[in-house]
Amino acid sequence: MIPISPTQEQRRRNPAFTLIELLVVIAMIALLAALLFPVLSAATARAKATACLNNLKQLALASSMYAADNGGVLAENYPDTVAVWTNSWVADNMQARAGATNGASLQQSKFFPYLRTISTFHCPADLSETNGVPRVRSYSMNSWMGSREMEATEAELGYRTFVKESELFGVGSSGLWYIADEDQTTIDDGYFFMPMEDGVSLTSIPASRHLGGYALNFVDGHAEIYRGWPNPDPNSPVKVGSTEWTILQEVSSIK
After folding, report:
1. Which residues contact 251 (CB under 8 A, 6 or more apart)?
2. Whole-angstrom distance between the N-terminal and C-terminal Cα of the chain?
3. Does 2 map to a domain?
4. What residues contact 217, with CB distance under 8 A and at least 6 apart?
5. At residue 145, does pLDDT exceed 90?
């Protein structure tokens, strides 16, 4: 009789996995991964939404501190089509090659002294790039805040613009939004054009990065996630009047 070595005896008692068994284990692991992936993705999306809301709360606080240091006057907010655009709360342009990736320009923002970090201007879920470099800003300010520009085009509608904190003390003004997460296809200057007149083409569109929604803050300092804009297409301008736009319109200005 040929003696059996300890190693051979151990192999008999503990045989290796068969190919079928290995395939079954691999299939089970793949199934578990497939089941967990949506959960992990949703958790990651919620974490980014929370970070975005925190950014907007910090921007709201910076706005309040700026006004306190400037006699109750809100930071200026102008489109880049007017001569005083460089005095606006932020002067970079996300459609311009230089401005889109120039973090140094954000250091000139009226809010930067109260923030001390350029990352606060960028939503963590915003993956837009210019020439392979991430853009530095994701947010724009409500066009009814910081200037009288909207009065020139929609004065007959009776909506109010706000350039001083004292003007925001009116009934319902605490429920007005101040800065929002703008879609990467329309964001340019820091001025979010918010028309009230029906039939006007929208040149600024909210983002839909946070599980189909976008973040925005309000003049009382809190921030929320609102319903997003469905598939913006710059080649097919959306008009005022949709359900999503009406929801945002109601918290943009008051009469």
Report:
1. 175, 176, 177, 218
2. 104
3. no
4. 56, 57, 59, 60, 177, 178, 179, 180, 223
5. yes
Its sign, for the CA torsion 232, 212, 146, 124, is negative
- Maximum CA extent, the chain: 108
Provide the domain limits for residue 218.
19-249
Q: Is residue 6 part of a domain?
A: no
> Residues 211, 216, 217, 218: is their CA dihedral positive or negative?
negative
**Domain contains 1:** no
Give pLDDT, residue 154.
Answer: 78
User: DSSP for 182-250?
Assistant: B-TTT--SSEE----STTPBPS--B--TBTTEEEEEETTS-EEEEEPPSS--TTSPPBTTSHHHHHHHT
75 in a domain, yes or no? Answer: yes
d(CA 243, CA 216) in angstroms, rounded, equals 17
Q: What is the number of structural domains in the chain?
A: 1
Q: In sequence order, which ranges of the chain are alpha helices (DSSP H)?
A: 6-13, 19-69, 97-100, 103-106, 112-115, 149-154, 243-249
CB atoms within 10 A of CB 224: 14
Chain segment 103-130, per-residue pLDDT in tens: 998 999 999 999 989 999 999 999 999 9
Residue 220 to residue 210: CA distance in whole angstroms: 22
Tell me the pLDDT tens digit for each residue of 192-251: 999 988 777 778 989 988 988 999 999 999 999 998 765 555 455 555 556 778 888 899
Amino acid at 210: H
pTM of the model: 0.80
CB atoms under 10 Å from CB of 98, counted, come to 10
> What is the CB neighbour count within 10 angstroms for residue 118?
17
φ/ψ of 201, rounded to 5, equals -70, 140
